[in-house]
Queue: 2 jobs
Job 1
Amino acid sequence: MRPTYPVTELLGDGIGPELSRAVHTLADALPVRLEFVPIDLTVENRKLVGPKIYDEATDSINATRVALKHPTATVAESPNAILRRRLDLSVIHRPVYTIPGVPTNFRRELDLDIVRIATGGTYDDPGRLIGDDGAVSLRIVERKPVAQAARYAFNLARRTNKRVTTASKYTIQKATDGLFERVAKEVAVQFPEVAHSVELFDALLGKVIMAPEKFQIVLVLNEYGDFLSDMACGLAGSLGIGASANLAFDASGVVRVALFDAAHGTAPDIAGKGLANPTAIFLALAMLLYQLGEITVGQAVKNATLDLLREGIRTPDLGGGESTESFTAAVASAVVTRLD
Ligand code: NAI
């Protein structure tokens, strides 16, 4: 009997159906059984069912506790924003690393786990004009999501034997960023075996470029995480190849639900042509397997995918000649070999 896990699968637009088929082919090759519960978030079904579709989605995710989301077109509403609000997904974990075969201008290796508080900062308040020539907005930092993100980051560090860096502008933004660093330190003392360093955020950006090997897990507030993620992805040359975990926590700080997705969109220009690169959704699946505690299986999915890219087995967006289907078959067979 293979261990069985229910997983909500949020179906999407454009290349979504091809990616879903690829995920199922790969999942069938795994020594665990993922019991997918499909929720149709395509534009047609969102129009047909209306907002009720999000009740179905949240009910299912709350029951299965893990979800894999395919890209969805933002038309009237953004499904991502709605799910984030409804499920209280307050933290985003975004691993960013140089991927063999992905062209980049950066000559160094980068391997960062960015843990970002996904609420507050300046993003919850659009601000207001004061007369014609001035404007203000509120910057919000709250203990709860900072503590949740910090606990997640330090637990990740403990599990993976990595260091944590917190970065902010605490010397200038004394109240907001000062609170962030204070809460992070309170959590850090509960993890005495994990090395923790503090950087000024502007300095961190320079240091990541000059000495990327010094940084492993970086814990940051919302807007800093936004900037750092895109800079790191740009360095890795992998804007569209990464994946993230979107996390919600229970009262004791344990992950309550986790939604995994690829960074790219629906790629309408190539939809239905067998050209979609499933790398990002496979990396999202690998993270989902880690969350289920299936570390070895997750690692096999990640490493098989990256090794094939290194060997030049790639889809056309990376200069290769594989179709979605043939690349998927290669990954599935490499995963089986690895786990044997
Ligand atoms: P996009 O990421 O869909 O496409 C940008 C370019 O990258 C296109 O040339 C596309 O063909 C290519 N590309 C993207 N993913 C690829 C893959 N897996 N394999 C091969 N090539 C790939 O971004 P764009 O064009 O800005 O957005 C298109 C739609 O996607 C919009 O409706 C947008 O709202 C939605 N979107 C959804 C996201 C989500 O659900 N997480 C995230 C970003 C955009």
Job 2
Amino acid sequence: MEEVGTGLLDRLDAMQRVAASAPGGPLLIVAGPGTGKTRTLTHRIAYLCAELNVFPDQCLAITFTRRAAEELRHRLDGLLGPVAEDVTVGTFHSLGLTILRENAEAAGLPADFRIADDADRAAARAEAGDDDDRYAALLRKRDLVDLDELLTLPVALLSGDRKLVREYRERWKWIFVDEYQDVDAVQYELLRLLSPADGNLCAIGDPDQAIYSFRGADVGYFLRFSQDFTDARLVRLNRNYRSSAPILAAAVQAIAPSSLVRGRRLDPARLDPEAPLVGRYAAASVADEADFVVRTIDELVGGLSHRSLDSGRIDGRSTSLSFSDIAVLYRTDAQAAPVLDALARANIPVQKRSHDRLRDRPGVLAIARELRHAGLDGSLAARVRLAGQVLAERFAVPTLDGSGSVRPEDVRTAVDLLTPLARRCGDDLGLFLSQLATGAEVDALDPRAEAVTLLTLHAAKGLEFPVVFLIGAEDGLLPLRWPGSEPDDDAVAEERRLFFVGLTRAQDRLYVSHAARRTRHGAERECRPSPFLDVIDPGLFERFGETEPRRPKDRQLRLI
Ligand code: ATP
Ligand code: MG
């Protein structure tokens, strides 16, 4: 356990210290990637408890993923010792569950209600068909609560019970929310109920990393924090501890045209003149791109661990890299397959994770729904394609919850995503729907596994790796586009933020690659590099690949 008290804030820089020791009241911390948000948040909680006589059980810290919650808990343990257990740390969903458990009867639920699992959901869906209201009633009859209801039911309960609101406000006097830029309407409502307008709500985030608007997140809540909460204090953290100076410079230039932060600044804390430039590889094909990734990983892990024998250090860090230091990031899941194959052929261990549940993707629900309509026949895979065509022809498709509309390109993406699953399920619609509900691919990432990590840009948020490959930096993938359709300005801005998130995951080495030809939507096409690369100073890149003559081996090694 670290010393609590006067030395507590010594491990923070000046602005982090200002944020961590700010007095009570609404507090907004606008902080770019790698500026130490988690470190600041945990130290603030420890500081409040140690210095301002705040009781740990008055603190509620909310994150967006279980993984982030575990990390926060772990760091709090280190700072506060056993009393850290009294801090309530969790995701929005676990918070909702706590409130429902404590008030089951008032919410009209039996004390022993259960969260519906995939089989429960599939069964209720199969019985209720398209009738969402009926679906909810079936779940209720079986003492089940759906995931979405973990938020909507507490909001409904608290909205109608001022006494209960007062009780919770009394209990959690200090509330902390990480990644506030990705809050959606229901989460926001819950926060407003739990925190008075002049309450001790500390929101941390980065509007330039808002990448979940397709799922209902609204960066507007972040941008109008000081209107929503009285006399809000604003602290900016600009010092980036994660990335080398060239990586950071490239990232800052990349976000500039869409930045939502006035006067966006990110100052590198790491100033090593020897830091390698950003590698930019122009691949002839997707296979060539995958080979490049494998070749480079081979050289990095083999070559550098060899050099570390004479205790070589780069940039103040040990040069011995292992597979777990490396991540390959991509825009669409379909891009993973060629890299997975190439890594497998080279016997390089790999783990793949997608943070997004399939059913959360725009378009997916609409297709599941359409599938049940009469008139579609053939195998499941054929029906998925057919459903996609039907939906894409309509200009806008209402989503299941009626909260918005799905764009034709979302539907086509969803068809691409669902087809492999549909193939695996043969003709079993029930199996297909239940797999869809679990999202087969949630949170399976082990940060300690000795393997290269493959993940989508969305899933990479909040993580950091010494070496990052961002593959498929092509027009059409970044920004994502379907043939014959143009993304609007807002969509391009969100894609650019996603690109920014990807670049800023890298600590020491970043490689950006693009292929000259790629098969998408069933046809091979010529590809241009992503326009997002155009705004980056060419001097920050070390270019290699097909546009340049093949380099002799020793030159290639030196580049890496
Ligand atoms: P993101 O927006 O990507 O989630 P973040 O702001 O949450 O980024 P962290 O992951 O908390 O950033 O920190 C980035 C890295 O910088 C971590 O490795 C952390 O240990 C380090 N770091 C943060 N603050 C300091 C500091 N004051 N001194 C040294 N290292 C620091
Ligand atoms: Mg973070």
